[in-house]
Amino acid sequence: MARKQLVALLLLRRRFSSLRSSIPRFRSPTLARRPHAAPSGPRWFCSDDISDLRERILLLSESHSEVSKEDKESLRFSVHALADELLALPDGQGLEASLGSGCFPDLLRRPPAGFASVELLSRLQSHPLLALQVFDWRKKLSCEISVLPEEYSKAITLAGRTKNDTLATELFCDAVAAGINETCIYNALMSTCMYNGLTNKAILVFEDLKKDAKCKPTIVTYNILLSLFSRSMLMDHLEKVLKEIEDSELPYTINTYNTVIAAYVTAWRWDKVENIYQSMLEGPIKPDDSTLFLMLRGYAYSGNLEKMEQIYDQVKETVNSQQMTLLRTMICAYTKSSQPDRIKKVEALMKLIPEDEYRAWLNVLLIRMYAQEGLIEVMERLIAEAFQRQTIVTTTGVMLSILSGYFNNNAVDRLAGFLKKAESAGWRLCRSLYHCKMVMYGQQNRLGEMHGVLDEMENFRFDRTRKTFLIMYKAYASTGRRSEAESVFGMMWKHGLGNSDDAFVT
C-alpha cells in the first residue's frame, strides 16, 4: 500500500512539473538554501533542531520584516482568542462563519508570514480533526495569501495524529503539486509514518527525498530516521544512518545525541552509551535534562549504582517532582543490588512516590527485597497489599525468597498462613514451599502436621519425590521414632525412589 501511494506521488510530480515554473511560490528570501561552510578545526555542531515551526517562521522572516516583540505577542494573543472561539463551537458547527468573518484572513496578513496559521494549528492540535478543517479552509485563501511549507508540514503532522496516513500523503501530494516540495514537507510525512508504525513507507519517503534535486536531507531528517530505527531496534540501520550523517558533515543536535543514547540504552549497549555521553561532556553540546534522564535509566538498568547516583544528584529536584517512572527505575535497581544500605535508599525514594501510584511489579520486587533481608513484618504488609489488589506472583524466584524469609525466621505458622492465601490467590506454587513447611514442622516435632502436608501436595498435584521421603525419614529418626522412619524408608523403595547407596545416619 505504501509503495502504491508513493508511485501516485511520483506521477503527480510529473504531471505538475511543467507548471512549477509558472506557479508563484511565496518564500521568504532567507528560505533559500545557504551554502554549507564548515568551520575549520573540529567537527561543527549546532545546539538545537529548528523543529518548532513557529520559531522557524520568525527566524526566516527577521531579515525580511522586523517584527517587534509587542507585535508578535499581540498577534499570538489574537490567534489564541480565535482558537478559543473555535474550540467552543459545538462539534465544529459554525466553523466557516468564524473563519470567514474577516478575522482569520486579517491575522494571516500580519507579519511574520505564516506565523498566525501555524500558531493556530498548534493551538488546536489537541483537536486534530478541527485543526485539519481549519487548514482546509485556509487553503481556500491560497490565491490571495500563499501557503507556506511550514503550514503544510504542520497539517501533515496533524493528519498523523489522527492515524490517517492516507490524508497525510494526500496533503503531501497537494504541496508537491503546488510546487512546495521543501525538505520540511518530507520530514513531516516521514515523522507521520514513523509514529503510525509505517517503517517501510517512511524509508521510501526518505529515498524519494534524496532523489529530489530541489531538496536535501537535513539533520532533522536523519534524526527522524534514527528515531525510526531506534523504535524498531534496528541497530545496524541506525549505525548506517550515523555514518551517513558523518559523511554529509551535518551538525549533530541534542536530539541526535538523545535519540542515539535512547536506542543504545534499549539495546543494552552500555559501552556505546558511555562513549556517546563522554563525547557530549567533552564537546560543545552539553547534556540536557533529557540526556541525564536517559543516562540515569541506563545506569539503573546496567546496575551501575555509583554513576546512577551521580546523575541523580544533578537532576534530583526534577526527578523527585516530575519523574515518577525514573524513581521506580532507581528503586528497581536498588532491589536487585547487594548494597548494605539498599533498604534505607529504597524507603527514601518510596516516600517521594504518591500512594495512588501503585505498581504491581514494584510491589513484588519490594516483597522479594524485604524477604531477602529477613524483614518479614514489612514483607507481610506488602504481601497483604498484593492480595488486596489482586496482584498475582508468577515467578518461582520471588516465592522462594518469601520462603527463605519465613525459614530464616523459623516462622512456620506464618508460612502456612501465607501458603494458604497464595493457593487461593493463584500465586505460583512450587514443591519447595511444601518441603520447607515439612522441614520446619519436623524441626518443631509437629509430625502430624508434617504428614498433613502430603495431602496438600496431592491437592495441587505435586508428586512425592525422593526428597519428600528423605525429609520425613529424618524428622522421624531425629525424634527417636525408628520404626516410623524405617517405614518411610520402605515407602521410598516401594515408589522406586531408593537405591543401594542409601544410608540414613541420624
Tell me, briefly, the overall form.
Answer: elongated
Question: For the terminal residues, how far apart are their CA atoms?
Answer: 77 Å
Mean pLDDT: 85
- What kind of oligomer do you see? single chain
Q: Tell how many strands the DSSP assignment holds.
A: 0
- Give helix and strand order, one letter per element, not per position: HHHHHHHHHHHHHHHHHHHHHHHHHHH
Q: CATH first level of the domain at 1-17 and 49-60 and 67-216: which class? A: Mainly Alpha
Which radius of gyration do the C-alpha atoms yield?
A: 34 Å
Please give the largest β-sheet: none
CATH topology type of the domain at 1-17 and 49-60 and 67-216: Serine Threonine Protein Phosphatase 5, Tetratricopeptide repeat
Strand percentage: under 5%
CATH architecture of the domain at 1-17 and 49-60 and 67-216: Alpha Horseshoe
> Number of helical runs?
27
Which residue ranges are poorly predicted, with pLDDT under 50 across at least 5 consecutive positions?
Answer: 10-65
